[in-house]
Amino acid sequence: MRLEGLSTAVTGGASGLGLATARRLVKAGSKVTIIDLPTSNGADIATELGEAARFVAADVTDAEQFEAALDTADEHGELRSLIHCAGASRKLRLLDKEGNPGSLEDFEWVIKLNLIGSFNALRLGASRIARHEELDGERGAIVLTASVAAYEGQIGQIPYTASKAGIVGMTLTAARDLAGRSIRVCTIAPGIMDTPLLARLRDDVRASLSAAVPNPVRLGRTDEFAQLACQILENGYLNGETIRLDGAIRMAPR
Ligand SMILES: NC(=O)c1ccc[n+]([C@@H]2O[C@H](COP(=O)([O-])OP(=O)(O)OC[C@H]3O[C@@H](n4cnc5c(N)ncnc54)[C@H](O)[C@@H]3O)[C@@H](O)[C@H]2O)c1
Predict the structure, then answer these.
(1) Prediction pTM value
(2) CATH code of the domain containing 51
(3) How far is the CA of 65 from the centre of ligand 1 (A)?
(4) DSSP state, residue 114
(5) Among 13, 31, 24, 155, which Cα is nearest to 81's?
(6) Closest ligand 1 atom to Cα of 146
(7) I want to staple 80 with a disulfide (CB 3.0 to 4.6 A). Which of 88, 140, 160, 234 is the partner?
(8) Do 17 and 195 form a contact (C-beta atoms < 8 A)?
(9) Among residues 78, 65, 79, 14, which one has the least CA distance to residue 44?
(10) How far apart are the two ends of the chain, measured CA to CA in Å?
């Protein structure tokens, strides 16, 4: 699928991996709708990106808000793709230091945002893309964001790991499910990416994180994620797969 002139919705597009993707898509001539929380600086970013970008405040776990955001994206230009980056984590141990069980609420919060949010984005994004006629043999594509934690969860990441493994698990099923509608689905599983969260860490902590990456020995660049997300949209034969983007890192237990 070509990027130029078509409309893409980017969730979590006000920061980190989503922001880098929104920037790259605008450069490639796409019309981009950034969907992020009202507390984000999505509005300023859309202004900075110019005419091709719009911002809609919406929570990806809220069906009504997300549908309204997709309305805007579809008005901006024929919606053909969705890059779903919104997500977060909460640290949680099965038992705390005193042996008390970990919080069920925290587990549910992460599952709701990352896994249920991804399902909501998939179903509503697909329903919107499916309304358009095929273009060069396909209707569109959806990219989800997992994490290498889906495979090697570290201690304290149990809800995050469960949510991201759920996304990996949904990918092939979703691609099969949407095949009849000519909509592709792929997932990116990033390693340690240089996003605002990591930028706030001390230099020695950043250096030790970088040293854990076999090659290249550095953190991933947000634009490397954006590059892969755009390639998935452009390459019509990529489907049903989760692609690790991680410099060959395999996370240690902690
Ligand atoms: N940064 C990394 O190293 C890394 C590694 C692996 C996976 N990931 C995954 O990549 C995705 C993006 O991470 P990032 O580092 O760019 O994070 P980030 O915090 O920089 O950006 C996430 C964005 O999502 C938005 N968001 C959060 N909850 C939302 C909701 N309910 N509705 C709408 N928007 C919401 C936030 O406002 C924020 O703008 C996440 O799913 C994360 O789990 C990141």
Answers:
(1) 0.98
(2) 3.40.50.720
(3) 18
(4) I
(5) 31
(6) 7
(7) 140
(8) yes
(9) 14
(10) 40
